[in-house]
Amino acid sequence: MAEEKLQRLEVVTPERKVYSEDVRFVVVPGSEGELGFLPDHAPLVSALKIGLVRVHKDGKVLKIAVSGGFVEVRNSRVTILANAAEREDQIDVARAEAAKQRAEQRLAAGGPDIDIARAEAALKRALNRLKAVS
Amino acid sequence: MASLRDLRRRIKSIKSTQQITKAMKAVSAAKMRRAQESVLAARPFARRMRDVLGRVGSASVGLKHPLLAVREPNRVAYVIVTADRGLCGGFNANIIKKAVQEMKDRPNVEVVTIGRKGRDYFRRRGYNIAQQYVGIGETADIGLARRVAKFVMDKYAAEEYDEVYLIYSQFVNVLVQKPVVQKLLPVEPPEGEDDGKRVDYIFEPDAEQIMGRLLPMYVENAMFQALLESKAGEHSARMTAMDNATSNAADMIDRLTLSMNRARQAAITKEISEIVGGAAALE
Questions:
Q1: How far apart are the first and last CA of chain B?
Q2: Which CATH architecture has domain B25-190+201-240?
Q3: pLDDT digits (tens, 9 = 90+) for A50-88
Q4: Do B201 and A45 touch (CB under 8 A)?
Q5: What is residue B193's predicted lDDT score, i.e. its pLDDT?
Q6: pTM of the predicted model, to two decimals?
Q7: Which sequence spans correspond to the domains of chain A?
Q8: So where are chain B's domains?
Q9: Cβ contacts of A14 on chain B, cutoff 8 Å
Q10: CATH number 2.60.15.10 given to A7-88
């Protein structure tokens, strides 16, 4: 069987490097919809929304929760610059649950002194993290 | 010559000071190690960010964006990163000196201070402080970096500032921290590497929106990087200062112990000669 062609995937956040390995196939949550990349993809830059990156490697799928950022594809290298990113095995479930409840309460309470957009973004991030582990 | 009792008391007090400086040194060493690790961990992102911005920038020349707009520098803001606490040698003084020197020839400046030491200095000197951030904690905080970046970017976009500079202490190594001045705004996209070859990107949704999100992220990251470097520098400056203090204390203790022994010897000699003198008087 011919050797499977691979591409390098790097996921970095301002604080650290989250993932750096050769993989077969990557799906990312682009701002305009999900994008899938196989090796030798044409050069592309896209914004990302809050969502899951799915990494296909050795027949398994790894989920990485990202909170917005960018993806750049070039020369079979996929670089994800994320505001925050956690692999599914690194997610603090208790913290995500707490964040979800906090955001929900804030949205439910309403009122003028509440930044709804911010609470909604926090809720989305928390739900996204929980989705990654489920 | 000081009395024996005075000398003993001074030695005791210096010893307890030495214990404190020793403890502070150990604490700073641990914090420095962590801060250094964070600096290293943050580098891949900064490098990738620069690469991507350079390539995207050269692939979308002629693009207009508020953060790229170059204006006559009439109103200039300086973001100055210092520490919250002192006892770290010349760390804060060096940054402040650099900042004062930078701002000397500018008539119309505002300062944004990060860290209590800088705030105190510039407030006392009557500088125009646009915003201040104190109590910045022991580790660099990305949230703080984003808040500061947002503040100056909003002001810049509103044309209240024409240029924004960042002054912070660069962490060269444990012994050397270099105050540096970096232009934060307008953003000057780094040169794309790749032997100047332009990459023909597909942009999702389009180049303008990508740049519109990439640029703020770049500024935030530059800010975060400065906080990281500053923290690592602060802890290592404090460690070095405390190490010096500890060895100075040891020197002082040695000297005082010597004088104390001499004083004791003198006292004994005096006593003996008094006894001998007294015995001789009886004969």
A1: 34
A2: 3-Layer(aba) Sandwich (3.40)
A3: 999 999 998 899 999 999 899 999 999 999 999 999 998
A4: yes
A5: 58
A6: 0.86
A7: 7-88, 92-133
A8: 25-190+201-240
A9: 42, 45-46, 142, 145, 220-221, 224
A10: yes
Helix, strand, coil fractions of chain B, as percent rounded to 5: 60, 15, 25
Tallying the residues shown for chain A, one arrives at 134
Q: What distance in Å separates residue A72's CA from the closest CA in chain B? A: 7
Nearest to B210 among A13, A16, A47 (CB): A47
Whether residue B196 is predicted with pLDDT greater than 60 in this model: the reply is: no
Q: Residue B25 and residue B43: Cα distance in Å, rounded?
A: 27
Q: Which CATH number fits domain A92-133: 1.20.5.440, 3.40.50.10490, 1.20.1730.10, 3.30.230.10?
A: 1.20.5.440
Strand partners, A21: A9
Residue numbers of B annotated as active site: 88
Tokens, residue A81: 């610059």
| pLDDT tens-digit map of B136-194 | 888 888 999 999 999 999 999 999 999 999 999 999 888 889 999 999 989 887 775 55
- Helix (H/G/I), strand (E/B), else coil: B38: helix
Six token digits for residue B170: 């660069």
Kindly state the DSSP code that residue B42 receives in the 8-state scheme: H
d(CA A47, CA B44): 19
What pLDDT is attached to residue B165? Answer: 95
For tokens 């002192």, name the residue: B86
Bridge partners, B178 (sequence order): B170
Calculate mean pLDDT across residues A109-123: 78
Please write the tens of the pLDDT for every residue from B23-40. 999 999 999 999 999 999
Amino acid identity, position B175: L
pLDDT at A2: 58
